Hints:
By secondary structure, this protein is mainly β. Helix content is 13%, strand content 41%.
Amino acid sequence: MKLVVYLYMSMIVLGVQAWPTVKRSFELYPGAAMPYNEHRISDCMHVASESGDYIFKKSAPSPAAPPLAALNFNRNVELLDLEALGGEELEAAAAAVTADTVCGLYVIGEPDTIVEITMKHYDVNCESGGLMAFVDGWELNGEYFPAVKDHHRVLDERVYEFCNNNKQWPRFSNKKFFRSSQNAALLQYRIPGRGSFVANVRFHKITQPCNVLVQDTAAVYKISNFGHPRNCTLSALFPAAVSLGNLRIGSKSVRAQEKVNYDCHLLEDRLEIGGSAGLDTTSMEQASAVCGASGELGPEQAIFCGVTSVRLVSTGRYQNQAAVIIRKADEHDLDIATLMCAL
Length: 343
């Protein structure tokens, strides 16, 4: 009996002595700190391509307004400390925004990513006419990317509006979480009086991108339906010179042709190249409609429009794909222009 008690007490003592060593062993290999970037929104149309917190703060107008307060978000708590910053850029941007102005945080990532936006905080009063909205894609002048007809979700499901209802009781957490279907997303906001928000932006890799908004002025992209019955679009917000390579579009008989066909407007599976003044690619002017197969690089054609688009139309009966080489066009490309949109 004494032996059992002695062994039991020894185990307790050894355990107490060992715990500090075990605890320190974990501290030798701390988890890697997550990168944290803080960005101040200073423009009504603010384009973002980096992860991190995007912060907007607008104070109520007054005759002698103090310097705008900045939002200093503590990652370990959910409270926001408003500290006087005196940021001239923020003050000028907020002063330029009228009561009816709708502004936006336009987020764009790499071609093979989707956008995740988490609303860590928002103070946008519904009663004063304040409103925020998440858009799955981009919206400019009433037109959307991806186009309404080409997206797998209807527009009502792509746009989610929200604001603070201060009369609601009990009050709920004002955190919200959104994910886009492609590498582009938009956070719109209208704040007539005072208000603020903190939106965290992250990007996630995907294996089968369909719609891609171009952010590089010279790059190679792969566009494919991956065997699905869907339309995929690659859009650049500038005049561009476009060429194709590694082309496989259409049925076996179409691919068996000696040359690539640039006049496939009547075929169901085709690759449309064209341009438009806005984001809606379904109503763009077409320079060519391509089908067939080729492993060689095709000729360049320049599209002089505000938006240059390459749109892959697929029935799902064939595995369509192409490599799209795109670069920004200039006056030296006028001799290869196949489309010039009206200004």
